[in-house]
Amino acid sequence: MSASSPPRPFAATFLRLTGGVLAAAALAAAGALSAFTGSFEERLAACGACHGETGHSSQPEVPSLGGQPAFYLTLQLYMFRERLRISEPMNALVAGLDDDTLHRMAERIAELPPPRPPAEPAEPARAGRALVLIREHRCGFCHNEDFSGEKNAPRLAAQREDYLAKALREYRDNIRRAYDSSMADAAQPLTDADIRDLAHFLARFRQTEARP
Hints:
Blueprint: H1 11-29, H2 40-51, H3 70-81, H4 88-94, H5 99-110, H6 124-137, H7 139-143, H8 161-172, H9 182-187, H10 192-203
């Protein structure tokens, strides 16, 4: 698909597959999930069932994927396929896929529009504390100054607040693997209060706003 082509909505197949995906989630919870055997389009629709067919997740602690860099998405799919990251529905969804298919899935997902932040702005005091942490840890060096993400560094702007907090805790506590050790190193000194302030600010960040 060319850059000028409109994003292909997942909704049509999403509606058809929702029942199957929910059944798959139930099986995963029971520890009985086997490899997903659907077509390429059905796998994409399954992504939309949890992450939002428009790229904006409404599921607690499930990330929005719209606007994420394709390279970052490819790496995550690869890590799920190789079980370097464990999420049984994701591991089952990409099990057995070759590298080219993972790359094509990532390219399609990356075409979805970035999520919009909540209407209410960040609380000033919490935003101030978050900006101090962002400068100290040089978050913009990898994630861009507008937190749009680049290459293997994900987009953070307008990501779900609960997912951002979860991911930071997992990096700090060495529960989650990443492309390299950068995030574990950066997150290690963070307190729970620091993580809450960062997640609160980044979830409400608008790319059109200039950072103080």
